Amino acid sequence: MTVEETAAPAGAPLSDVNRISAERITIRFGGLTAVDDVSFTVPDKSVVSLIGPNGAGKTTFFNVLTGLYRPTLGRVFLDGKDVTALPPHRIAQVGLARTFQNIRLFNLMTAEENVMVAMHSHMKSGIVGTVLRTPRQRREEREGKEFARELLDYVGIGKTRDEYARNLSYGDQRRLEVARALALRPKVLLLDEPTAGMNPQESAQFVQFVRKVRTDYDVSVLLIEHDMSVVMEVSERITVLDRGTKIAEGLPQEIRENEQVIEAYLGKTGTEGYGVDL
């Protein structure tokens, strides 16, 4: 993602106002506890990362926040409003937008159409207006196209707007997912392994992109990410899960030096005389 350098640094003081507050979230599938009593906050205009080894419960926790899973115990709040029982489309409408670990696009729709699909939750014309092609509906469609093109330009793939999503490169499909999420005009943007498949240069550009999005679109950003260089560079706070339990939370340097975190990634035998670069 090609963006200009932004002055907003990682490690800036976090806001006292929380966009997301998850209280004592537990989710069980039969006899398996995937997430166990995890509390978590995302402050306003922050960049927060959720990390942990494979199977730690990160994506499951994301799915709870976005309404795909209903927690067995606990509650989720957005701007102080309890959204625990809302279905995914309502949670998206009230301000949580996400991308997925496995890309989910409409492959036989163009890049522009993929972005416009996300805008329908904010359009007012309804079915009747769409069928009758009322002036209001035509105006909304025109404005939607303009905004879609603005977003595609913003993430660096404006020239592909008329290409089918399935014909885009892997990296451009990732960018398209971000553009579609931004089309929801979210308060919080959730990114699930956004740099997967990117080369080191693209990953470094992504760090700047996240900071720019936070500033330009006035959003908080929560990401799951396995590239520790990205996590340490972009995050203002990091939370670590292991086997569904929160084992650490703090500033990047605190997490880098946390022996319990290093043990979770490497095992006990790997912590002796460790010099790991988390």
TrEMBL record:
Q: Where is the ABC transporter domain?
A: 20-268
Q: Which domain of life is it from?
A: Bacteria
Pfam families xrefs: ABC_tran, BCA_ABC_TP_C
Q: Which keywords label this protein?
A: ATP-binding, Nucleotide-binding, Transport
In terms of PROSITE patterns, this protein maps to: ABC_TRANSPORTER_1 (PS00211), ABC_TRANSPORTER_2 (PS50893)
Recorded GO molecular functions are: ATP binding
Alphabetical list of CDD domains matching this protein: ABC_Mj1267_LivG_branched
Transmembrane intervals: none
UniProt protein name: ABC transporter ATP-binding protein
**What is the phylogenetic placement of the source species in the record?**
Bacteria, Bacillati, Actinomycetota, Actinomycetes, Kineosporiales
